[in-house]
Design a protein that fits this description.
Chain A: One of its GO terms (biological process) is D-methionine transmembrane transport. The complex is a heterodimer. Chain A is an all-alpha fold. Chain A is 79% helix and 0% strand. In chain A, helix 1 packs across helix 9 and helix 6 packs antiparallel against helix 7. By secondary structure, chain B is α+β, with helices and mostly antiparallel strands. The chains are: A mainly alpha, B alpha+beta.
């Protein structure tokens, strides 16, 4: 194979786009998903703010968003994307759909991690007079830290594969490149390079995540 | 409050676990640090300040729990089955620490347990709870020596390794008595003194001589063999010495 079709400066630009899309959407996803996940956890049965109706509604919305295939979701929320970023194209245009798709996913992972926190520790904090906010901040988020870091890693990897799909609506990045050159023009060499870069990216993310989880595990 | 399963933050160091209740108050960083080192000193964990709970033994974890519970100077220390997850040696070490804290700091300790020797070794007063209600309450010595309620009797029998002395009635020719004594009389030869001027003989069928907290006590089932009037005199002498004598029928 000669890689005659590969224009490296374009590959470099696409890689930067993919990284930018992933980093920004990961940032917003983690902020929003953490809040949503904590609310899901707290309002669920036998927890600090038990609210069956609130939990049911939130849970339903999360399930709906998670059921819609990303490609469909991306197209459906285009009007919303336009309002938020002013465009539905490029890196900016793909961040809202990425966040909307990844937030419910991450929120569920957060909820699950928080469930793993020993109830006894929460009880002890209550016995010491900790407020609910203190318990969230000083107990739940601290005790669930390894689980939360693992959840961020999984979400980051998921976002990489989502960014590749956003190529379909002109989102840019490596996926877009693979689609336009590799698929539509049968340039297998471009396809190969982009796929290899995506594999490397995922490996790096996973290793970094594992390292962080190990660094913060105390059990 | 301290717990059976310690309930420490697994992601925080010993120091941070003890600082947890202090950080909920308005104390400054320096004040918190000083109080934490003071508490760690008290429970003997100064050199483990930067370890995580997973690196500690059960007894050490419970010491962290105790330090944390004392941080905000409580009036009462609640111990919920605090020694039930510990081995016997560690249990004794923790009990010694609790007793020490009780004396040094003058804190009332309310201890929930099903381990009778825990009550015998450090408690002053005891209440027996059955089906969610208090069925018996009083000084440890009184409750252990003369349990009134069925549940209390069951508990006390577990430690006294006593069998039901009433089984002996009718099998023996003499008269059976249960004798209790507490305090200094425990180590006096009272029984011998009471019978030596009579022709009454005695046999000890069952007995315990031990201590509760610091108080020595004894509880014997004795058989007295002899004439009725002479036995009455012996009983009278024993009672005069402050012993509690009760005939078993």
């Amino acid at each position: 194979m000669t890689f005659e079709n590969v224009r490296w400066n374009e590959i470099w630009e696409a890689t930067k786009d993919t990284l930018a899309m992933m980093a920004w959407s990961l940032l917003f996803t983690v902020i929003l998903g953490l809040i949503l996940g904590v609310i899901l956890f707290l309002t669920s049965r036998r927890q600090l703010l038990e609210q069956p109706v609130v939990y049911m509604i939130l849970s339903f919305v999360v399930n709906v968003l998670r059921s819609v295939p990303f490609v469909i979701l991306m197209i459906t929320i285009m009007p919303l994307t336009k309002i938020i970023t002013g465009t539905t194209l490029g890196v900016e245009g793909s961040i809202p759909p990425l966040v909307v798709a990844a937030t419910p996913f991450f929120a569920r992972l957060v909820e699950t991690s928080l469930r793993e926190v020993d109830r006894g520790v929460i009880e002890a904090a209550q016995a010491m007079g900790a407020s609910k906010w203190d318990i969230v901040r000083r107990v739940l988020l601290l005790e669930a830290r390894p689980g939360l870091l693992a959840a961020v890693t999984i979400t980051a990897v998921t976002l990489v594969s989502y960014t590749a799909m956003s190529g379909v609506i002109g989102g840019g990045g490596l996926g877009d490149l693979a689609l336009r050159y590799g698929y539509q023009r049968f340039q297998t060499d471009v396809m190969l390079v982009t796929v290899v870069l995506l594999i490397v990216l995922v490996q790096l993310l996973q290793s970094a995540g594992d390292l962080l989880v190990r660094r913060y595990s105390r059990k | 409050m301290i717990f059976q399963h310690f309930n420490l933050l697994s992601m925080a160091t010993v120091k941070d676990n003890v600082a947890f209740p202090l950080r909920l108050t308005k104390l400054s960083k320096d004040e918190i640090n000083n109080r934490v080192s003071e508490l760690l000193q008290l429970v003997g964990l100064t050199e483990h300040a930067n370890k995580y709970p997973a690196q500690l033994s059960g007894g050490q974890k419970q010491r962290v729990g105790i330090a944390r519970a004392l941080a905000n100077n409580p009036d009462v220390l609640l111990c919920d089955e605090a020694t039930s997850a510990l081995d016997p040696q560690t249990t004794n070490a923790i009990l010694a620490l609790l007793l020490d804290i009780n004396r040094k700091l003058g804190i009332t300790i309310l201890l929930i347990t099903h381990e009778m020797h825990v009550i015998r070794s450090i408690c002053d007063r005891v209440a027996v709870i059955d089906q969610g209600g208090i069925v018996e309450m009083g000084k440890v010595l009184d409750v252990f020596l003369k349990p009134q309620h069925r549940v209390t009797q069951d508990f006390v029998e577990q430690v006294a390794d006593s069998f039901d002395a009433r089984e002996l009635i009718g099998q023996r020719e003499g008269r059976l008595y249960r004798v209790h004594y507490v305090g200094d009389t425990t180590y006096e030869p009272i029984l011998y003194n009471a019978v030596k001027t009579t022709r009454v003989q005695f046999a000890i069928l069952q007995g315990t001589v031990s201590r509760m907290k610091q108080t020595p006590y004894g509880q014997l089932i004795v058989e007295l063999i002899g004439d009725g009037p002479e036995i009455e005199r012996v009983i009278g002498d024993l009672r005069k010495e402050g012993l509690d004598v009760e005939e078993l029928r």
